[in-house]
Structure formats: C-alpha cells, structure tokens
Design goal:
- The chain has about 120 residues and is an alpha+beta fold.
- The protein is about 20% helix and about 40% strand.
- Strand 6 and strand 7 form a beta hairpin.
Amino acid sequence: MSVVEQYARAHIVTDAAVPLIDELQAVPVTLRYDPDRDPRSVRMGLPGSGGREWTFGRELLEEGLRAPAGSGDVRVWPCGRVQVVVEFHSAQGVSVVQFERRALLRFLRRTYMAAAEPVTH
C-alpha cells in the first residue's frame, strides 16, 4: 500500500513561551498516512517543531470535521463552514492549527483510497 503525504496551508497559534512561527502567516503543514505502519492513524508535522510529528487516529480527524472530537492531547472541531481546528496539547503548551476543511477532506479521501489498494507481490 502506498504512503499518502500532503501539504496543507494552515494558521498556527501557540501559547509556548517562544513563538515558533509568525501566527498571522499561513504555513505548510505535512499530513501523512502510512497504512503499512499504522492503518488507523495519521501524522501531522508542524513547522518549527524540530521535526516533531503528532500521531492520532484517522477516525478522530474525520469525526472532527463534523463535530467536536477528542479529549486527550489532540482535539478536532469544525470552525464555521469552511475551517477545521486541530488542537495539540503538550508539556510545552498548546498549539491550535486552523485548516481549510476541504484540504483535510482531500487528505482523508486519499488515505481511504490508499488503504483500499490491492496488495501486489
């Protein structure tokens, strides 16, 4: 099965002591899905985080497009009709990432297509 990697523009707000990026500027966020590694999870890499990736359930991302979802380190909820917010909690603080809904829908669609690919040897 193939790995899905997509870049999406997002706005990031953080309460970390030292801001990692300019909060007013849209930045590229890496969305990644590797069905061989973990078919139920997606990974999200934020710029300026020293290469840190957040891993969380693909189902959580999908649920969060429609209604608030999550209660742990990762929470997702719709923000109006065209935006989705993903909130990350860590010892360093909270980062709130705002995406266009259609970018996340496109990514999820691609992950389901990749998971459905037949295995060839």
